Amino acid sequence: MTVTSDGDLTAPRANGMPMLGLGTWQNTDPDECRTAVREALETGYRHVDTAQAYDNEREVGEGIAAADIPREDVFLATKVWTANLAYDDVLSTTEASLDRLGVDSVDLLYVHWPTNEYDPEGTLAAFDELYGTEIDRVGVSNFEPHQLEEAVDTLDAPVFANQVELHPLLPQEEIRETCADLGIEVVAYSPLARGKVFDVPLLNELADDYDTSPAGISLAWLRAKGVTAIPKATTEGHIRDNWASLAVDLDDEDVARIDDLDHEDRRVDPDWAPWN
């Protein structure tokens, strides 16, 4: 078993998106959110993820501004909420997001969920309108395989990423295979299964073997799958623990052992989700 330090993983890949980011869902305490974003960037993170629905875009922007990191070095993503997915609403609420974030553009803008006001023709036409000016990349989130194929066929802009719940207890093989076939990046939210990875005996065993935590093992497993992870972290300790996962290089046999976990534990499952 090996533990390595790969400096290349701390920087953007050729596609511009670092493989480890800071998630900010439920980080709604203003001071805590600003501090977490600043500390993450000063630790080495260069990818920050937020959303209109998180009600913290302003604080995320202030945290980025407070860090001594050039804006162009930060990969910033946000998402358009389901009530704002009509054509005109996408345009107006994206401008409002940029204003709250204090930036001229974002590196990645997602359709948060394909539900409520989502209409492939109207919604994605608005994303095409924004592409290349207010947004550098178009993303989707919580899309099932058939919805990914429809989005690829509808958009003029390329679909850059699909953000889904993904962790050792919900491996999402079909979605990962579809994204690979379509040339779409996979971004994992809730990559620690909302803390459930700490209850898995195998992940604890491997954490001891690699001198890390079950979180570190889970994040390293995702990286071995070519998946970008955006774990939420609000304390300096958790921010640094997740960052340390970049030094964990799982052996192929240990990746396979995690693959063999017999779990299908979805932690985010609203009634209106496309898989229901």
Describe the structure.
With 276 residues, this protein is of the alpha/beta class. α5 links the parallel β6 and β7. The protein is built from ten helices and ten strands. The strands form two sheets. It has an eight-stranded parallel β-sheet. The protein has a two-stranded antiparallel ribbon with strand order 1-10. α1 packs across α2 and α5 packs parallel to α6. The longest helix has 15 residues.
Number of helices: 10
List low-pLDDT spans: 1-8
User: Radius of gyration, Cα only, in angstroms?
Assistant: 18 Å
Largest sheet: 8 strands, parallel
Strand order of the largest sheet: 2-3-4-5-6-7-8-9
Q: State which percent range the strand residues make up.
A: 5-15%
Dominant shape? globular
Mean pLDDT over the full residue set: 94
Secondary structural class:
alpha/beta
Q: How far from one another are the termini?
A: 40 Å
Helix and strand sequence: EEHEHEHEHEHEHEHHEHEH
Total number of β-strand segments?
A: 10
Helix content: 25-40%
